[in-house]
Design brief:
By secondary structure, the chain is of the alpha/beta class. It is built from 15 helices and 14 strands. The protein has two domains: 143 residues, Nucleotidyltransferase, domain 5; 187 residues, Nucleotidyltransferase, domain 5, CATH 3.30.420. The structure holds adenosine-5'-diphosphate, acetylphosphate and magnesium ion. It is found in: Cytoplasm.
């Protein structure tokens, strides 16, 4: 049975799964977390059992080596599992990559070159891709880009209002990210409602460490909150999201340099900057304990999501679905309740009991008389990457 190894590397983690793209069956899965932060943690699941261990992984090259070791320790070395292809999540594909792409040396180099436009992500992808290509040189490696789904943005959504010559010279435009997630989640929302995706106007809120909103009309992305880089838009774990560009100029003229501002906005902002903690669970706990900074962080977080929700309701001329996904969207009922409060005028009304349910599968959380169906749909970037990689291999 041909299987696809899916490698989803983030800035400090690698999630991986071995998937049969035909049936969607998961044969093994795992995660290396806290890469480059002292002791990393590995969790590997195979044949119904999970093994966890501390590992040393200073970067994504070493982390990939630990994944290989986990398969060996479980008694099923990767090289003996009949891996027919490797699918890699790549966040930034720029203008070059509009669909899943077989990685050769030139493509691998281009992914490195695009690092400036996804500094937390592309360098990590590049290391994992190199390591995987060395281990499995004889199978196709396929890059599936976060940016690809947003190729359908109309010009008035992807163009910033700056001098077009300068924008063209420096490649400044909106690309949008989390596209693989927005795509699979909007399709599964349509499946849950038993309606063709082509008939639906959807707003997907991907609220993870990184977070973005997407307006989807008939299955096509028509607007999204992330921009040239994954920094624009919503408040995130450690990223600011929207900020007056004038504030950046002010900081630069006040003595910070570009690297200082980069670190400020990408790593010391968002929930972490506002409350001291990057993890939504800790922010909620602090707020419940009476920490006013944490309470304010939550209000800013919710207000920004509502800002985009309102914008996309208008852009789409109304919506059939609002879909919550990713770590926060799937797990935090209080955030969903905050986002959807007082929107009856728009036909949006949550059912508090459905919203509070801790079920892990895709589900409806709006009331029966809500004109807009509000859903929680677990994201599954890995299944979508396996599907797209499988299609490329079959061609
Ligand atoms: N059970 C939970 N309760 C509250 N927050 C959660 C829960 N599970 C995950 N999260 C939040 O989700 C975030 C991570 O989301 P995830 O989609 O895994 O992000 P990423 O893939 O970008 O690393 C964490 O920062 C955490 O705040
Ligand atoms: C694009 C992006 O922000 O990805 P992640 O949420 O995995 O950090
Ligand atoms: Mg993610």
């Amino acid at each position: 049975m041909p299987t696809v190894l899916v490698v989803n590397s983030g800035s400090s983690s690698i999630k991986y799964q071995l998937i049969d793209p035909g049936s969607g069956e998961r044969l093994a899965s795992g995660l290396i977390e806290r890469i480059g932060q002292g002791t990393a943690r590995s969790s590997h699941r195979h044949d119904g059992s999970t093994s966890e261990r501390n590992v040393s992984a200073a970067d994504h090259t070493e982390a990939f080596g630990e994944i290989v070791r986990s398969f060996e320790a479980a008694g099923s070395p990767l090289l003996e599992l009949g891996v027919a292809a490797v699918g890699h999540r790549v966040v930034q594909g720029g203008a070059d990559f509009v669909g899943p792409t077989v990685i050769d040396d030139a493509v691998a180099q281009r992914i490195v070159d695009l690092s400036e436009l996804a500094p937390l992500h592309n360098p990590a992808h590049a290391q994992a891709i190199d390591a995987a290509r060395q281990l499995l040189p004889d199978v196709p490696h396929i890059a599936v880009f976060d940016t690809a789904f947003h190729q359908t943005l109309p010009a008035d959504a992807y163009t910033y209002a700056v001098d077009p010559d300068v924008a063209a010279q420096y490649g400044v435009r909106r690309y949008g990210f989390h596209g693989t997630s927005h795509q699979v989640v909007s399709q599964r929302a349509a499946d849950l409602l038993k309606r063709p995706v082509a008939e639906l106007r959807q707003i997907v809120l991907h609220l993870g460490n990184g977070a973005s909103a997407c307006a989807i009309d008939g299955g096509l992305s028509v607007d999204t909150s992330m921009g040239l880089t994954p920094l624009e838009g919503l408040v995130m774990g450690s990223r600011s999201g929207d900020i007056d560009p004038g504030a950046i100029l002010h900081l630069l003229r006040s003595g910070m340099d570009a690297d200082d501002v980069d670190a400020l906005l990408n790593q010391r902002s968002g929930l972490r900057g506002l409350s001291g903690s990057v993890d939504m669970r800790d922010v909620q706990q602090s707020a419940a304990d009476g920490d006013e900074r944490a309470a304010l962080a939550l209000r800013i977080y919710g207000r920004r999501i509502r800002h985009y929700l309102g914008a996309y309701l208008v852009e789409l001329g109304g919506a059939d679905t609002i879909v919550f996904t990713a770590g926060v969207g799937e797990n935090v009922a209080a955030v969903r309740a905050d986002v959807c409060r007082d929107l009856e005028w728009f036909g949006i009304r949550l059912d508090p009991e459905r919203n509070a349910s801790r079920a892990s599968e895709a589900r409806l959380i709006s009331a029966d008389d809500s004109r807009v169906a509000v859903l929680v749909v677990p994201t599954d970037e890995e299944a979508e990457i396996a599907r797209q990689a499988g299609e490329v291999v079959a061609r």
